[in-house]
Amino acid sequence: MSNLIKGIAFFSFALLLGIAGWGFLFPPHGPGISAILPEFSSEVTVTIYILVAALFFFLSGALIGFLNPNQWGISSVIAWPGMMIGGLEILATIRRNMDYDPNALSLGSAFLLLTAPMAIAIVGGHVGKRCHHLFSRS
Fold first, then answer.
1. How many CB atoms are closer than 10 A to CB 19?
2. Contact 10/74 with Cβ under 8 angstroms?
3. How many CA atoms lie within 13 A of 106 on its CB side?
């Protein structure tokens, strides 16, 4: 398979993984949380949710890096929903001129949403690439 076709295939796969990761960008709130994990408080549940999201982005990036080690940087595409939402929220915050909006993310939260999923996916992609090289030598 040529590198271009392989790159397009993995780019498309990363876009699909990004759609699956979209739901992890919004921790659940409300009374339904206690039904999912009744033994935990909502703060602990959100923490678990964030850890699962980080694990999802890391393992998705590692999968792309392992299966396509020469183009492991494609793993950053997995984070497109966070980049889109974080970037739009940063622009909206700047446009509002920092006016208080109780429904808006803070600038720091928007920047974290912009960078954290991508950084975790890129680290996962690099780890996947290294694992591919490690396993291909044996």
1. 11
2. yes
3. 3
Show pLDDT as tens, one digit a residue, over the chain (138 residues): 688 898 899 999 999 998 888 887 776 655 555 455 555 556 666 777 788 889 999 999 999 999 999 999 999 999 998 888 888 888 887 777 656 665 666 777 778 888 899 999 999 999 999 999 998 876
CA torsion, points 50, 54, 60, 63, in degrees to nearest 10?
A: -140
Q: Using N-to-C axis directions, what is the helix angle for 3-22 and 42-67, rounded to 10°?
A: 170
| Spatial separation of the C-alpha atoms in residues 119 and 121, rounded to whole Å | 5
Helix and strand numbers (H, E) in the chain are 5, 0
